[in-house]
Amino acid sequence: MTIFTDIKAILLGLWTTWKHMLRRPVTIQYPEEKRQPSPRYRARIVLTRDPDGGERCVACYLCSAACPVDCISMQSGERENGRRFAVWFRINFSRCIFCGLCAEACPTLAIQMTPDYEICKRDIMDLLYEKEDLLIDGCGKDESYNFYQHAGIGVAQRRGEGAEEKAPVDVRGLVP
Amino acid sequence: MPKLIIDDITVEVAEGVTVLEAAQSVDIPIPHFCWHPALGKAGACRVCAVKLLDGPIKGIQMSCMLPAQDGMVVSTVDPEAVAMRQQVIEWLMINHPHDCPVCDEGGQCQLQDYTIACGHGLRRYDGKKRTHLNQDLGPNIEHEMNRCIQCYRCARFYQEFAGGTDFGVMGSASRVYFGRFEDGELQSPFSGNLVDICPTGVFTDKTARFRARYWDFDMAPSICPECSLGCNTTPVARYRELLKISARHNDAVNGWFICDRGRFADKKVNSFDRPRVPLVNGSSSGWGDAVDAVAKKAAEFAPGSIAVVASSRLANEGAALLPDLARALSGAKLCFFSNEVICRASITAASQITPHMAASLDDVASADCIVIYECDLRQEAPMMLLAVRQAWRKGAPVFLVGKGAPLEQAAAVSVEAVDLDIIVEAPIGIFDRPVIIFSTMRSSAAEIKNLMAAEAKFAPLFDGPNGMGMAKLAAANSTISLESAVKSGLIKGIITIECVIADELRGEIPIIAALDWQMNSSVKNAGVFLPTTAWVEMNGTFVNNEGRAQQFKKVMAPGIPVSATLESGHPPRIHSLDVPGGEPKPAWEVITEIMKRL
């Protein structure tokens, strides 16, 4: 009898509706209510500092090479003390797709993704973040890493005093 | 002709060719550091290991040290050979600082490539790294000895190939050190090639330090504009700025190397005072108005009273239009050379020489007798000196003839030369492949005619990168030197095309218009200035000293370097398709524009 199966179908459907009417809704009333994403969420990009407070970014161009949408550009330079740094560093967030490939490519842990997902501006030019907008005072997710201590060239410390190094060789020494 | 099998491919090579080269000839890549086509083998790096499965020799062998022999069966993919190469790389990396992010070689590093290719990805060694102190090698080359993998390429190039004496290898065992006895600028005029030849980042170009990565380079095949030899180069630009110049391989011309003069030349293209907009009486103007002004001013002069003057900086494309421009300017005098003596000498050399008589740099390097006649190659053609050294290394005697050929030039590449007073003292007749090198800037037309009567090949040197092309065009068209044009008293106005005219030669004659890309006295004194592109900003052709026409391609678009347009530290935030300072056009295009208005 088709009439009974039709009534059954209606009642089953309505039962599902009534069931959910009594449950707590999953909808979040954004923006009054906000959700805190997990720390590994991929949103606004920052540039971090090493534990000594120095800029971690050495402007190696790996993030801009990895970026699939070409939203990162920079110019590398050399400081008085031999540190390589970004003279200027620009991320175009109107183009960024938050894929996280830049953070994955970064060899110095300078570029990191944060859970701050609220990036919305009235003027598109305000989405062009320069180095001072990106650079934070802090190490981000890794509290201890300092690239120059492991780099094997004397920049943050004297030559041969890095983490896994012997003292410089005496080239004129005669000891075998 | 040994016939061998490499990875199931049968290869037949000439006697004496190594297994490594035999494999390369059929596109089988074998990793190598110490072997270099120009320097040959050293057997120092041990990374080109292959396994010989059958034949006269068996087992693991270094393919760069092993001459190919009949019946060899070589495997580059045998597990034993692969394991050997992987372990050698791991061992080379034990002391290598892992500083690729702050190394300029990163991205174009042979060590990086082969480390990845050989599959070494994880450091297993727990011990500490050996470190070295660096040396200050002058303003052009940065030294970072920690990165060294002891392939000996630098010392072999510097001492054997280029004849330098102030750089070499010191120390023993793991303390082997490549450097000078004490800090100081490298003395060889070819020291810049250490940058290209080092398979990792021990020597990097200090003039472009940290400026860009290989994958971001704007580059194209080009020709060096510093002298008339036409060495093949690859200029590198980034963000509208010429950063550095590296050598491009061409066996017939410069081989694998270029001289320091070409490599570290002033980057005038980026110059802050480079004029980039058309100027009429000193004030900037649009292209249309400026070209109109040239036509209007030129119309005020009587027929035959204008001189169109070019220099050998001008590419063939522009130079070939000049006879038409002169005709359009109602019979203007055409001057491809300013100086009368150089004009006659260049035309004589260019019209006497035949393809059969012209010696390329490769011919010089394989000559069995070299005569350098009245010229100093250090100034006029440094790469010729390197070719002379290669001939001398193979046993060719080198004769320096005349007071204009100082012995110091031979000393610069450690060549023992014989000093002669006159050319007849050189026993050219007893050699099979003698080459005579002379300069059209030092020798007169009569001298050159005398010289070229000899049974030999000739390497004339010209004034500028397109000297030969200009001389050929000058001979084919009715041209005179500016000096004799001015002496005739008929010239009342001058148009300069990429050319500087000495003030004493010009006197009171006004410059109607100047086309150029450098700031100089002609540009400053010109009624109308029209900006042209430099050689890296256009396609064109230079004819080198042996008559070889070589194309150069556009490396970058003209424009003010981004680094000079920063606003409070950042590149400007403007959307525009127009590039600031992008007005310059190739000289041939400007000349065509002028001709259309006449």
Fold topology:
The complex is a heterodimer of chains A (176) and B (598).
Chain A: H1 2-21, E1 45-47, H2 62-66, E2 72-78, E3 84-92, H3 101-105, E4 111-113, E5 128-129, H4 131-134, H5 147-150, E6 165-168
Antiparallel strand pairs in A: 1-4, 2-3, 3-5
Chain B: E1 3-6, E2 9-12, H1 19-25, E3 49-54, E4 59-62, E5 73-75, H2 79-92, H3 110-117, E6 129-131, E7 141-143, H4 153-161, E8 168-170, E9 177-179, H5 193-197, E10 203-205, E11 218-219, E12 222-223, E13 232-238, E14 241-247, H6 260-263, E15 279-280, E16 283-284, H7 287-299, E17 306-310, H8 316-319, H9 322-328, E18 333-335, H10 340-352, H11 361-365, E19 369-373, H12 377-380, H13 382-393, E20 398-401, H14 408-412, E21 417-420, E22 434-439, H15 445-451, E23 457-461, H16 467-476, H17 482-487, E24 493-497, H18 503-506, E25 511-516, H19 521-525, E26 526-531, E27 540-543, E28 549-552, H20 587-597
Parallel strand pairs in B: 1-5, 17-18, 17-24, 19-20, 19-22, 20-21, 22-23, 24-25, 25-26
Antiparallel strand pairs in B: 1-2, 3-4, 3-5, 7-10, 8-9, 11-13, 12-13, 13-14, 15-16, 15-26, 27-28
Helix pairs in contact in B: 7-20, 9-20, 10-15, 10-16
